[in-house]
Amino acid sequence: MKATLAPSSLTSLLPRHNKLSSLRSPPSLRPPSSALMTTKTASRGSVAVTAAATSSSALREGIAEFYNETSGLWEEIWGDHMHHGFYDPDSSVQLSDSGHREAQIRMIEESLRFAGVTEEEEKKIKRVVDVGCGIGGSSRYIASKFGAECIGITLSPVQAKRANDLAASQSLSDKVSFQVADALEQPFEDGKFDLVWSMESGEHMPDKAKFVKELVRVAAPGGRIIIVTWCHRNLSQGEEALQPWEQNLLDRICKTFYLPAWCSTSDYVELLQSLSLQDIKCADWSENVAPFWPAVIRTALTWKGLVSLLRSGMKSIKGALTMPLMIEGYKKGVIKFGIITCQKPL
Amino acid sequence: MRLIVHNMLTCNIKGVINKFPLRIEAEKVIKKEVDFNPDFLRHMLAKIEWKALVDGARSMGYTELPDHAPDTERVESDESFLKKFHHALLELHLEEGSLVCQETGRKFPVDKGVPNMVLREDEV
Fold it and tell me: Is residue B124 part of a domain?
């Protein structure tokens, strides 16, 4: 069953000082954000978010099916990290497969570093939640690195099973485990996790406010939250929304990858501010991920890649055909690769 | 699903007060050996909801755990206890069955060892 993803309504996050609404409340137009992105906190203002009018369960099923179908293919060609690599900007060297894998690991390390997780801080991290865990690459890496317990959640039963099997094969079963659960309704008590990790899963959340609220809820006092996600560019002063051509580009990507809503990095910062998080930082890493999609396309166009794609099914094929749009989005400055981190007060 | 995870899972249906623990209905339980790590276990002991662990273990067919965990000082030297704790916490796997919300009776299925905690539209 496919999710219908025509974004036909503007739904907004409530302005600062008010309780944040979810998409279930009637959509209303709000004045736009005029926040500019800086490396510290963004300027304040109310924000507008474009959302797809789709039933949540249809979207969840669509996401689950997409990953059920495509995870095996991805793993075969790229391994167990389902996220962008982090590259030095202007690096024109054509990397080998292992170079890309190293870049994916570097993405994890750079994210932890950006969030302020020093060697000293690492020792305090005992329990981690990986929100949108894929087949568990980040979880296993972090659990090994910190000796921490890591729980991952994904909507895809295929991914969860595979993630558990990989953990077992790496003798990490005592430390990591994976469940099928919804990031918007995390099945955990408040304040359980010293580190809340969301590596490229925010794109799938139809309700960014709810997504962020859940991340904050399950974070322990003093715990850190790390969100690495695809965003659209920040809106300029006086801008109501993205340009129609920009919106159109995102719509075409949304349909294939089950991305119901895009927001900007500043929107995330505003949300975190409204929830009184501390030490909120953000950055634009678009330049650092530029080599990634061309590399993915190159692997798709190899003999092995093409055969595997054809075997995998329509969702995979459509996904592959959509990848040039991602490159276009980045090149034209519509799509940004953002990191937003913060700490929950004690 | 192992009990170390069960000890963290709650029912998140809207309006439910008695979210934890979830009762286990076991259909298939398997045992998988895990390396014994006393330091890890001592550290975990402070974080575990003991009654939930004992009840969960019983539902999976393991009745060796004491009703109350020993004091932390005694635990240091009580290897027999640590081994039972280790077995219950880490080595019992619920492969097939359900996690049941004590308040609503809603069953969250466990399939191939993976619990599915996704709520329906009307539960949110």
Answer: no
